Amino acid sequence: MQVLKRDVWRYMKFQQEVCKHSDFTFNVNDVTQEDIEDFRDYLENEKTLKAKHKRLLKQMIDEQPNGIRKGYSDIEVRGLNTIVTLMKKRCSFFSLFYEKGKTKNRPLEGVKIGSEKYGTPFIIYLREIRMSTVKTVPVASSFRCVRAMPPACCRTRS
Asked: What 3-state class would DSSP assign to 109?
C-alpha cells in the first residue's frame, strides 16, 4: 500500500505543480471517474513525464511524506501487471470506504481495470537442460525421470 500512497501523492503534486490545479486533491469524496483514468495514464507515463520535468520530479521524490529507501529513488517504466495491481488496490480502497459509509462517491464504476496477464508455465527437467546442447532432442516422453512427468497441459511449448 505504501507504493500506491507514494504514487497518489506524486500524482497530486504533479497536478498541482505542472497542470496548475493548485487546489487538486485525491479526496475520496471528490475524486471523479476522469481523475481515476487520468491517474492510470499518469502511472503508465510517469517515466516519460519525469524526463520532461526532471527538477520537479526529483524534488517530489526527495520530499515524499513516507519516503523511499536510499538508492531506490528512480522511477521505472511500469508494466501492465503493475498498473492493474495498483488500480485494483485503489478500487479496494474506494470500495472499503463506500461499504463503511465513509463516502457515497463511487468513481470506479465504469472504469475498466483489466486483468494481469501471465504466460503459460513451462517446465523443463534437468535432463532436458543437459540435452539442449545436442542438435536433436528426443521427445519428452522418452525421458526417465525420478518423478512422474507432469500432465500435458503443463508442458506446452510456444
From this structure: coil
> Digits of tens for pLDDT over the chain (158 positions)?
778 888 888 888 888 888 888 888 888 899 888 998 999 999 898 888 888 888 887 777 777 755 555 556 667 788 888 889 889 988 888 889 899 999 998 888 888 888 888 877 777 777 777 776 655 545 554 444 444 444 444 444 44
Instruction: Give 9: exposed, middle or buried? Use CB within 10 Å, 0-12, 13-18, 19+.
Output: middle
Instruction: DSSP for 122-145, please give it.
Output: ----HHHHHHTTSSSPPPGGG---
| Model pTM above 0.70 | no
Do the Cβ atoms of 104 and 98 come closer than 8 Å? yes
Q: Which of 18, 2, 4 is nearest to 60 (CA)?
A: 18
Contacts of 24 (CB under 8 A, 6+ apart): 12, 15, 16
Backbone dihedral region of 105: left (phi > 0), alpha (psi from -120 to 50 degrees) or beta?
beta
Alpha-carbon dihedral 43, 105, 92, 15, rounded to 10 degrees: 20
Amino acid at 27: N
